[in-house]
Amino acid sequence: MSNSRFPEGFLWGGATAANxxxxxxxxxxxGLSIFDMVEFVPKEERxxxxxxxxxxxxxxxxxxxADEGANFPKRRGIDFYHRYKEDIAxxxxxxxxxxxxxxxxxxxxxxxxxxxxxxxxxxxYDNVFDELLKYGIEPLVTxxxxxxxxxLVQKYNGWEDRxxxxxxxxxxxxxxxxxQDKVKYWLTFNEINISTLSPYIGSGMLIDRVENKEQAIYQxxxxxxxxxxxxxKACHEIIPDAMIGCMLARMEVYPETxxxxxxxxxxxxxxxxxxxxxxxxxxxxxxxxxxxxxxNNIEIEMLPGDEEILATHTVDYLSFSxxxxxxxxxxxxxxREKGNFFSGVKNPYLEASDWGWQIDPKGLRVTLKKMYDRYxxxxxxxxxxxxxxxxxxxxxxxxxxxxxxxLRAHIDQMGEAIKEGVDLIGYTSWGCIDLISASTSEMSKRxxxxxxxxDDYGHGTLERKKKKSFEWYKNVIxxxxxxx
Length: 484
Ligand code: BG6
What we know:
CATH topology: TIM Barrel
CATH superfamily: Glycosidases
Number of domains: 1
Number of strands: 14
Shape: globular
Largest sheet: 8 strands, parallel, barrel
Active site: 383 (nucleophile)
Helix content: 25-40%
Strand content: 5-15%
GO molecular function: beta-glucosidase activity
InterPro entries: GH (IPR017853), GH_1_N_CS (IPR033132), Glyco_hydro_1 (IPR001360), Glyco_hydro_1_AS (IPR018120)
Keywords: Glycosidase, Hydrolase
Bound molecules: 6-O-phosphono-beta-D-glucopyranose
Number of helices: 17
Pfam families: Glyco_hydro_1
């Protein structure tokens, strides 16, 4: 009998997103997406707080007119579009039970506002799902992973415009109908909380186009909440045996000290993070956000019926990404360290990755327990992992013990949380195959069990190589997390 802390049928696997993986940005009838417009900027030259944010019309124009030599890494990805069979065979060799991927919205509706989908795009995902199912790997599909068609930005200023809800619903219904027999696990918006931090990536908005920025950000978010709930409704109607969830970039926030000011600051930061899942899991805006809107003169325009839509079509499970924790201080001038999109005070008890992300396996257990207590719905960790520089040794091997250590510690804490009563249904580590970084567009920031021979400028053979962590993770899955 197994002594594993992980339940039978636990969904082990890996996670990716179309824009960081597929490449072939202008093949198969695909339209441009917002991430196709993000240029690589070397580390020394980075100036923006969120490097991938495009703010204005002029900036977008410049990117659209960039010369031939411009470096847009997400346009080339790692060429999964042409190599998916080889990659899926490697996932199968590791024993994946599930594979998280996203559908690129502009592959299906190139402009976003058409009435008829692009058959070539639909056929591509049919082939990918068939290949996964051939090996018994369940596809776990995100409808929108920062892949808004660029045309919707240009014509409607993205999610600021209510009409985008209708376009998204059409897209969601199209893929639910088409893949109803193939895909049983769905997610609506990846890291929906990014929309308040990066309006371009999260909501497809050029923020310089609007007068009242905060108002526009929350209005766009409201439209996404409604669209997400309508997608849940459609999924339940079209694929009754499917599960559909929401997705949060989870930040566990600690108070810097036991000074009540720090404790309050941490609580408030945490509420800001959990607000998104409050709406999607509980089905209504929490009172602390309503007070915040009132204090800041933000008025969300709701159509009759919106509240009912949110309340009726809540998600079946809650998924989240977890890379780091944060520290909040009650004192406003405390120096903040930069993380992914987030920043906080340095935690002296934790080490950080080469990108300054503070590594905190126990924080994952804290978060699992807290989220389960708060929501009482199944949880799914759909991203976690270590972005690191890897070295290919002379004999071709890649000894990524640091990655194994990171994952081992996090998986162990997951096991403890399950033992302590948390209903966790799966784990897909981020970037199971090296891919383009979301925040920096680097290729050299690697997360994979599988190495891809490509550098930040697109040089390389794209050859795939197994890292040491490949065999390690294979054994973790084979023993259902018993041997770490
Ligand atoms: C999450 C995103 O924010 O973190 C992924 O959902 C992203 O798309 C991942 O790749 C890791 O971030 P980065 O910037 O290291 O790629």
